[in-house]
């Protein structure tokens, strides 16, 4: 039997083989759920749910709804306990990766590749992008800065002005290039933060 902790690191190595240029983000909040893994590639943001042999389907229906709001494509990674039944519990556009122990190591197999998620909510997806990253997207598209406006206002304006095919690549690039340490340090020492009492949550989200 394989547990979540047995699957994660080998899964990342497997994904590196499938998608040579990627960025992995673990345990990302999404609505009322939490994505086990978010994988960013130059063109697509993938949500990845892990269901080990020890897991049940108890929360999966709600999780699927949340994944489908936030990510371009979605995978579910399942142990052998779930392999024969998982297709009954996820939409037809979800990809399926199976994992089983082989000579003491997890062995992964792409049972089905994911299709494009038809239920994606662009506003939800854009909520993953930090304010400095949104500012860069605005700059790339020659938009006003809207410095005094809310993040929601900025997202609405970007979605109104920038074609989805253009925004898709720009968002992926921002997430691929995200530098947590540099962004955090530069924001904490910016005039905006020095002048006003901003929380870290307000700065990034």
Note down, in words, how this protein is organized:
The structure is a single chain. With 205 residues, the chain is an alpha/beta fold. It folds into two domains: 4-112, 3-Layer(aba) Sandwich (Trna Endonuclease, Chain: A, domain 1); 122-204, no CATH class. Helices cover 41% and strands 22% of the residues. The model is unreliable at 192-205 (pLDDT under 50).
Q: What's this entry about, in short?
A:
This protein has 205 residues and is of the alpha/beta class.
Major pleated sheet: 6 strands, mixed
Instruction: Quickly count the helices.
Output: 9
Can you tell me the CATH topology of the largest domain? Trna Endonuclease, Chain: A, domain 1
State the secondary-structure class: alpha/beta
* Overall body shape: elongated
Roughly what is the average pLDDT, rounded to an integer?
88
What is the CATH architecture term of the largest domain? 3-Layer(aba) Sandwich
Query: Which residues sit in consecutive blocks of at least 5 with pLDDT less than 50?
Result: 192-205
The structural domain count equals 2
Number of strands: 6
What is the N-to-C succession of helices and strands?
HEEEHEEEHHHHHHH
Level-1 CATH class name of the largest domain: Alpha Beta
Strand content: 15-25%
Secondary structure layout plus pairing:
Layout lengths: L3 H15 L4 E8 L2 E8 L4 E7 L8 H11 L2 E7 L15 E8 L2 E8 L9 H5 L4 H10 L10 H11 L2 H14 L2 H9 L2 H5 L4 H5 L1
Descriptive key words:
205 residues, alpha/beta, Trna Endonuclease, Chain: A, domain 1, 2 domains, 6-stranded mixed sheet, 41% helix, disordered C terminus
